[in-house]
Amino acid sequence: MTFHQFAYRNVIRNLRIYAAFFMASFFSVFVFFIYSMLMFHPKIDRGFLGNVPILWMVVAEIILVLFTWFFIFYSMKAFLEARSKEFGILLHLGMERRQLSKLVFLETIIIGVMSIVLGIIFGYSFSKFFFMIVREILMLDELPLYLSWEPFVLTFAVYLSAFIVISMVSVHFSPQRKIIDLMQGPKGGNYTVTYTKTRALLGIVLILLGYWLSIVMTRTSLYSFSILIPILITFGTFYFFSDSTQYIVESLKKKKIVYWKNSRMLPLAEQTFILKNNGKMFFVVTMVSTLAFLSVGLLSTLSSYTSQYDKLNPLGLIYKGHIDNPYEGTHVSTLVSQLEERGLSYHLTRFTVKKQTSSYTQYEVEVFRESDINSLLFSYGYPMVRLSEGEGMFIPYTEESIKKLSKRTIETVLVENNIPIKIDQVYPKLIFPGSIVSLNSIIISDEDFAKLVNPYKGYPNVEPGYHLFTFDIPQWIETTDIGLSIQQNVAAEYLKDEYLLPYYFENAGLNYSYILSTYSLFTLVGLLVAAVFLLAAGSFIYFKLHTNLENEKRKFDALKRMGISDNELKSLVTKHLFPQFFLPWGVALSHSLFAFIAIQKVLKNVANISIVKELIFALLFLVLIQVIYFYLIRWRYIAHVRD
User: Which pairing describes strands 347-357 and 364-369: parallel, antiparallel, or unpaired?
Assistant: First the structure.
């Protein structure tokens, strides 16, 4: 038998240890390859696929590569530790350490090449189905399967280099242990409990401080807190698993009513050493799981926005221009003719909005005429506005603003024309999207509006008002191709340093198609990346369990000889495994929940979006997956310790 055959048979014999590593590597290659197929698709033109930027696909590729390198490095260390007894026997039989390093290198390359080849084969087989999904999502005419060398070469080169470099580094920097130590097998663990009360409390304090900052975060503190909170949580989590957990368990062991009750003594005593020896692994699993939870949670956030888009944008088309806009007649006529050609029903309302200075705030206020507003409200089927001379009404800009403005009463004077107005009410529904009207917008009676003969004080350097054309279209989702030339001019102007066009145009149907396409594509990207993270996080625990499996079997054998029943054995195994699985995932879930509390507060202020329902559904789904994974590993673990 040649040396290479010996390496191959070693891989086959150790499939139990290599299984989780192979599956996680295979799935990572699979995801990376189908992303690459989409990136290099000939339909892509200058970084765009349909209407959606491909940038986030590249970001996902980079994240996968960086994470895979870390995952392979950690896995290699776990393999070397799990097979220490086997390596000791080989060295005792005369194998040189240089040959042992070569053996480990060959085994890693074999399992790596197998995962790469199978990942690429399955990835290419799945690409046609993936393209069908993307084509429907982006509403493209076609997105055919193609054959090109770029995605194959990129995937093979990235992952093969990862396996080669990290296997060499892991073997080179692994500690040189004596043969007698290797023959004894994997270390059962360091039974010296080492922690400090100061660091234990510091870990808890840092995490709680990060949570508190998440709760009190506002729009103004968003940027500073978004940098500070991850730092606090990261260091807090590290100290929590290195010191705080041991401190908590030792405190519980001092309470006899807890420690000496039923069979708690065995698993609780064992957890002290498990938490100490696996602290770094628990920290890694927690941070990786947090990233996975955040990925799924952010997708839930986008789902909330898409599902509530029609409430936030009640109008189909909006055209807004200066008072002297020379393009107004041509553009509005074009929009009307295109709607009629498509056979879409609509209700057109023309507003003349004037700017005035409020004596109450000394700031600019946008003034709408009662009859114009009622024309639009009639098309909505909303209640009409009824105002007398001297009365005014707030126009809400978000759902949340309705509650705030309903409690305010303001007596002001429109300075330029000396018109007193009392504002003590707000319209109870959203009339315009928040991006169209200013925060200071009011409705006054037609009689008062007719008295606004003097222009805004900033005129002619500042526009004294604007014309607003609103199209209430019941089937606004079908307006994606209405006013495309106007939309392109507006989009091109936004790319410049200064917006100089005398008009602005917004197509809710077109914007919704962009948002829906982006969300759907993010869903595909995010869910696959999250799946890789979760699979790898579970693999970390799997590696650690199988590294110490022989020591654990000896412990349970001793208990069985003492007369422990099969049901008691299962109960002890459950208590033994439960903290190792659910403590890091529970902490990760807690981190994610407070992160989304902060996101929910910001979204409430910006767009009045609630992500609670979607977030609860997504996190419950993830918890269900983890429970299934736990019982699967528990089943295999019990089978091994029974042997």
Answer: antiparallel
More confidently predicted of 53 and 510: 510
Query: Cα separation of 103 and 4, whole Å?
Result: 8
Q: Dump pLDDT digits (tens) for 604-614.
A: 555 555 566 66
Evaluate the CA torsion angle 211, 213, 216, 221 in order and state its sign. Answer: negative
8-state DSSP, 430: -
The Cα 177–Cα 182 span in angstroms is: 7
Distance CA 642, CA 557 (A): 8
Tell me the two tokens of residue 589.
Answer: 């879930």
Letter for the amino acid at 188? G
Q: List the one residue out of 631, 611, 613 whose CA is nearest residue 623.
A: 631
Structure confidence by residue, pLDDT tens digits, 338-394: 888 888 888 888 988 888 888 888 888 889 999 989 988 888 888 898 988 889 999
Question: Residue 48: its pLDDT value, please?
Answer: 45
Helix (H, G, I), strand (E, B) or coil at 48: strand
User: Does pTM top 0.85 for this prediction?
Assistant: no
Q: Cis omega before residue 267 (within 30°)? A: no
Q: How far apart are the first and last CA of the chain?
A: 31
Identify the H or E element spanning 172.
helix 149-173
Residue whose C-alpha is closest to residue 393's, from 374, 416, 417, 418: 374
Tokens 């000394």 locate to 362
d(C-alpha 195, C-alpha 246), whole Å? 7
The three-class DSSP label of residue 468 is strand
Burial class (CB in 10 A: 0-12, 13-18, 19+), 104: buried
Would you say 311 and 485 are in contact if contact means Cβ atoms under 8 Å apart?
no
208's tokens: 């709680």
According to DSSP, the residues that pair with 432 across neighbouring strands are none
Q: How far apart are CA 230 and CA 213, in angstroms?
A: 11
Q: How far is Cα 589 from Cα 566, in angstroms, rounded to an integer?
A: 33
Rounded to an integer, what distance in angstroms lies between the CA atom of residue 337 and that of residue 269? 79
Q: What are 418's two structure tokens?
A: 């000396």
**Alpha carbon distance 138, 82 (integer Å):** 48
Residue listed under structure tokens 């062991």: 253
Burial, 526: exposed, middle or buried (Cβ in 10 Å; 0-12, 13-18, 19+)? buried
Largest CA distance in the chain: 104
Question: Using CA atoms in the order 70, 79, 240, 221, what is the torsion angle rounded to 10 degrees?
Answer: 10
Q: DSSP string covering 216-227, please?
A: H--STTHHHHHH
For 317-364, give the DSSP string. EEEEEETT-TTHHHHHHHHHHHHHHHT---EEEEEEEEEEEBTTTSSE
One-letter amino acid identity for 338? Q
pLDDT in tens, 252-295: 666 666 555 555 555 665 666 666 667 777 787 788 778 777 77
Sign of CA dihedral 349, 352, 354, 360: negative
